[in-house]
Amino acid sequence: MIATFDVVIRGGTCVTPGGGVRADIGIRDGRIAAIGEIGRDAGGEVIEAAGLHVLPGVIDTQVHFREPGGEQKEDLESGTRAAILGGVTAVFEMPNTAPPTTSAAALADKLSRAAGRAWCNHAFYVGATSENADELGELERAAGCAGVKVFMGSSTGGLLVADDETLRRVMRSGTRRMAIHSEDERRLVERRRIAEEARDVHAHPEWRDAETAIRATRRLLALSAETGRRVHVLHVTTADEITLLGEHKALATVEVTPQHLTLEAPDCYDRLGTRAQMNPPIRDGRHRAGLWTGIANGVVDVVGSDHAPHTLAEKSAEYPGTPSGMPGVQTLLPILLDHCAAGRLSLQRLVDLTSAGAARIFGLVGKGRIAVGFDADLTIVDLQARREISDGWIASRCGWTPFDGITVTGWPVMTMLAGTAVMRDDQALGAPAGQPLRFFEGRRV
Questions:
Q1: Which of 4, 6, 71, 212 has the most neighbouring CB atoms within 10 Å?
Q2: b/e string for 5-42 if b means 16 or more Cβ within 10 A?
Q3: ∠254-137-217 over CA atoms, to 5°?
C-alpha cells in the first residue's frame, strides 16, 4: 500500500541530527511522517526544494514584542510576522512589558492576545520580583510559560532582582532552568556618571563594562551551585565570561546574539550611533573573538536575537536618555547564514544553536530536529542567495534594522508551521496560526 501525505517536500538537503542528506520529507497531520525517497504517486501538495536546504524550524529564545504597553514599537502580530519572514517558527517572549508579566493573570492575558494574531508558535516568560519570588514554582508550570526570567541589572522596564538574598529565594522556587540578564546593578549605579558626563553612546560599553557582567555572572554561578538551580545566561558579551561559564557547564547554559557576533565597538557606534545601543553593550574585537571561541569550543548553546525594538524618535534623544535595544528577530537567520557562507559557522552548528539547542535545554515537545514523529516546523533556505538587508524589508513596527544596507549570502525562502507554509519568498501567507509551545512536564531542564 502506498503511503499518502498531506505535503511532500521533494529533493531538498535536509539537515538532520546525523548531518545533511538529500531526501524527501513526507508530512501528515502536521508531523514528519517519512524521510527518504518518496514516490511521485504519494499524493498531497508537493514543494520542490532541489538546490535548497531544509532546516528544523528556527527558535528564537529571546524576543521583546512590547505588548501590552509599547505597541507603538511592536505588538504580537507585527513581531511574529517579522519572525516568520526571517524563517523563525517559534519565539520565547520576555516579561518586561507594561504591566510586566509577573502573575498568572498577566501570562493568561498574553496568551489570549496571541490567539489568532501570532504568526509563529510562542511561549512567554514570567518575570521574577521580590513580591512573586515564592510563587514562581507554580507560575513556571503554567501552560505556555517558557520559564522564569531574572534581571540582575536594570534594563528596559522595571523588573529587577539586584540582591543575592532575593535571587536566592527566586532560585529556590521552582525547578526549570532560569533565564538571566547578568549585569551587576550596584556597579551600574556606581558608574552611571560615566554615561551622564560623556553624553555620547561611545561611553555605553565603558559604563556597562566587562566587569559589570563578570561580577554578576560570578555571583550567579555561586548561587546556582548553592541552590542546585540551573541557569541560562542570556546575551553573554565578554570573553572572560565565556571562559568562566565553560568551567561551569553543569550549572549554566549560554546564549549569545547575532549583534554581538557581528558588530564591534567602536565602529558600530561611529556608524549607527544610539541604534547600536543595547544591554549588555556591543564590545570591542577581543570580546567578539571570545564569543566566536565559545561557539567553536561548545560553550555557547543558543543564539537568540534579543529583539528589542524602539522607535527612531526614541533613539534620536540624547544619550544616555536613549533606550537600549534593537530589532533582530527577522535578521537572526540571514546574519547567521552569512557567517556560514564566510566559513565561521557550519550549517550543522547553526541548527544546534538556533533550534536543537533550545529544544534540548528548555524541554520543548516535538521541536528542534528533522526526524519522524517531530512537528513539521521547518525553515527552508537558499544558501547561495545574495540579498541586501534593508529597513524597507523589516516588518517590525519600529521600521529599522542595524544591518540596513548589508549584503548577506544565504536567505530564508519558506517558513512552515505544522506542514503549512506561512511564509514564501518574503510574503506572509494565510492567516496567523501560531500556537503556544509545549514543554515536558516534571523535567528539570
A1: 212
A2: bbbbbbbbbbbbeeebeebbbbbbebbbbbbeebeeeb
A3: 30
Active site residue 306: yes
| pLDDT tens digits, one per residue of 227-274 | 999 999 999 999 999 999 999 999 999 999 999 999 999 999 999 999
pLDDT of residue 155: 76
- 289 closest CA partner among 317, 260, 312: 260
Q: Average pLDDT in the 65-94 region?
A: 98
Q: CA-CA distance, 31 to 28, in Å (whole number)?
A: 6
| Residues 6 or more apart in contact with residue 41 via CB below 8 angstroms | 2
How many of the other CB atoms lie within 10 Å of CB of 439? Answer: 22
> Residue 287 class from Cβ within 10 Å (0-12 exposed, 13-18 middle, 19+ buried)?
buried
CA distance 89 to 416: 7
Dist. CA 55–CA 355, nearest whole Å: 9
The span from the CA of 221 to the CA of 229, in Å, is: 10
- Check 24, 306, 338, 352 and give the catalytic one: 306
pLDDT digits (tens, 9 = 90+) for 307-351: 999 999 999 999 999 999 999 999 999 999 999 999 999 999 999
Q: What residues does each domain of the chain span?
A: 58-362
Considering the segment(s) 58-362 as one domain, its CATH architecture is Alpha-Beta Barrel (3.20)
CA dihedral 286, 290, 292, 294 (to 10 degrees): 180
DSSP strand pairing (407-417 vs 420-424): antiparallel
d(CA 41, CA 146): 41
Grid cell digits, residue 26: 513526507
- Which of 2-16, 337-351, 430-444 bottoms out in mean pLDDT, i.e. has the lowest? 430-444
